[in-house]
Each structure stands twice: as C-alpha cells, then as structure tokens.
C-alpha cells in the first residue's frame, strides 16, 4: 500500500477531491436530484424484453454509431433534428468530457458562471483545460449584457450555460443564450439536464439552426428517471458530432445501454408523466419553506436552493438523523433540496418544521 501523494500524479490533479455526493441508504434521498418516482411496471417489462434480446447478441461488439438510439433521441427532441445531429454517451458527464477532449485541453479554457454544476471544473482539470469561473449576480440570474461582457473579456474556447442552473435552480432566458453565442467564437454548451421540468421555457434546441458552435446537452438521469442506466446526449451541428467521434472510445455505449435507452424512449410519455407531480411538489415545498421564513430561490428544475439556515451543516445532520438526505454545497446559509414524491415532501416539511430554529436573516 502507498498513498496518493507518493504517486507521480499529473500536476493539475494534485490536491483535488473526487466528486463525492454522499451515497447512503436512507429512507428519503433528496440530495442528487434524481426522479424519486418508480418506473411504471409495463415500461419495466418492455425494457427487460429489449435487454433480453440485446443479451443474445453480446458476443459481438455493439453498434459503434448507435444509430437506432440516435434516431429515437432525434425523434424525442423533435424540431426536425436528424440522427447525424445527435450524440450520446454514459451520462451527460461523459458527453461533456468528450466535448472538452475535442475542444479543450492544454492551453485552452472553459468558462461558466458560478455557483454552477460542480463537475465542470473537475472535467476541466481532468482534460488539462484552464477553468474560469465567473460569479453570477446576487440573485444568480444571468443577464444578456453580463454574459456577453464576460465572454468578450475572456474569449474562452468553451463556455457552458447551465439552464436551469444546478445548484441554484435559476432558469436561463433565451436572450442570454443568443447574446452568449454572438459574444465569442468558441463552443457554447447549454446544459439542459433539467429542461423537462422547465415547462415555462422552450429548449435551446430551437436555436440550433444557423448556430454551428451551439451544443445542447441533455440527460435521461433526471426527468426520465433513468439515472442508473447512464445515458446523456447532445444535439448540435453534424460537424460537432464528427469531432466527438474522434475522441470517444470505440463501442463506448454498451449494447445493454443502447437497448434500455431506446426502449425507454418508446415510452417517453409514461416516463415523463411524473414531471407534473414533481413540479407540484416543488411548488408545495417552496410555499411551505417560505411560510416558515426561509428564502427559496426561483427554480425551473426539480430542486430548490433554500437560504436562511443559520448553520447548514447542522441542519443537514439534523435532517440526516431523521432519515432525510439533502445537499450541503457550501453556499453560505443554503441547502439544496430535491423535490420528491408527495410523501417524501411531507416528511421533509415536517422535519424542517421540527428543526425549530428560526431562519437566519441573510
Ligand atoms: C445531473 C446533472 C447532469 C447529468 O449527469 P449525468 O451524467 O447525465 O447523470 C448534467 N448536468 C447537470 C447540471 C446536472 O445537474
């Protein structure tokens, strides 16, 4: 046995911590923004049938270009997208890593607006790309002018707009994306991991025509209740997809992943039927916490960033002691809470009410 500090690790990885949201078997897990509703039984049966069929062929490598799945994803996204504009990998994290491998790297930069998804700087260091985190305004909402000014100043090779933004929930407005695209010459990624929950705003997929440097990243991990399968995808100009095919590992999407995802998309209506309930629970939770005196930030996602905790670490532990896991992201005074089922939301409201401490002013 040796220790990490004794190994000849790459310089830019020294001192880093791995991504580490706690994984614990508690009754109420509201810490990583999963869809906590189960998949309908008839959909389970159809996925299992597709998997059985796929297993019969696993002596061969899978379709490297996963065309059936790309056709299904193009159909799901609509807007006359064709399979040549679609890419997928094992979670959108891998899709984003491939984008960084193709367009980032040593001497290049990745910019985003913080606080935002904690994986972006980790993906940057993993590909030796310089990370530029530009702080968001106090209400976390990006403006077209602010974003354009930052992109003109830094001229990054890649910029990511996360909308709705994790961990704040803040939606990203259409004019912000347009202004961002026009402000620099690099790759612009809109990370729409939570898009299905933002019924108020259309997908940036609509903005793709005429914008060959725009990449729209999506995932089946959140609204689709498919986090365990690991399937993220992206829509962009076919030339961008050609770039990603240069860096992907051959056969990166297993035959089982392709079969399960293709089957699930056949049932997208049923798979997404829980979205309306999750949105309703989000609003119920927001109203209850606001009533208790907490500060709830506007959210277009399946979670809320909640301020007013005098001691977020203590509140986190008190909730954990009651079997409820939420996320403490070290934003002063704040916790991030996923909207779950009606019963989970009830348990959470009860537990926060029982904390009994008056919310801190912030
Ligand atoms: C959860 C999440 C993802 C999705 O990751 P997967 O690898 O697809 O599970 C991507 N971006 C953001 C902002 C997320 O919150």
From TrEMBL:
<keyword id="KW-0032">Aminotransferase</keyword>
<dbReference type="InterPro" id="IPR015424">
    <property type="entry name" value="PyrdxlP-dep_Trfase"/>
</dbReference>
<dbReference type="GO" id="GO:0030170">
    <property type="term" value="F:pyridoxal phosphate binding"/>
</dbReference>
<comment type="similarity">
    <text>Belongs to the class-II pyridoxal-phosphate-dependent aminotransferase family. Histidinol-phosphate aminotransferase subfamily.</text>
</comment>
<keyword id="KW-0368">Histidine biosynthesis</keyword>
<protein>
    <recommendedName>
        <fullName>Histidinol-phosphate aminotransferase</fullName>
        <ecNumber>2.6.1.9</ecNumber>
    </recommendedName>
</protein>
<dbReference type="InterPro" id="IPR005861">
    <property type="entry name" value="HisP_aminotrans"/>
</dbReference>
<dbReference type="GO" id="GO:0000105">
    <property type="term" value="P:L-histidine biosynthetic process"/>
</dbReference>
<keyword id="KW-0028">Amino-acid biosynthesis</keyword>
<dbReference type="InterPro" id="IPR001917">
    <property type="entry name" value="Aminotrans_II_pyridoxalP_BS"/>
</dbReference>
<comment type="pathway">
    <text>Amino-acid biosynthesis; L-histidine biosynthesis; L-histidine from 5-phospho-alpha-D-ribose 1-diphosphate: step 7/9.</text>
</comment>
<feature type="domain" description="Aminotransferase class I/classII large">
    <location>
        <begin position="28"/>
        <end position="352"/>
    </location>
</feature>
<keyword id="KW-0663">Pyridoxal phosphate</keyword>
<comment type="subunit">
    <text>Homodimer.</text>
</comment>
<dbReference type="GO" id="GO:0004400">
    <property type="term" value="F:histidinol-phosphate transaminase activity"/>
</dbReference>
<keyword id="KW-0808">Transferase</keyword>
<dbReference type="InterPro" id="IPR015422">
    <property type="entry name" value="PyrdxlP-dep_Trfase_small"/>
</dbReference>
<dbReference type="InterPro" id="IPR015421">
    <property type="entry name" value="PyrdxlP-dep_Trfase_major"/>
</dbReference>
<dbReference type="Pfam" id="PF00155">
    <property type="entry name" value="Aminotran_1_2"/>
</dbReference>
<feature type="modified residue" description="N6-(pyridoxal phosphate)lysine">
    <location>
        <position position="222"/>
    </location>
</feature>
<dbReference type="InterPro" id="IPR004839">
    <property type="entry name" value="Aminotransferase_I/II_large"/>
</dbReference>
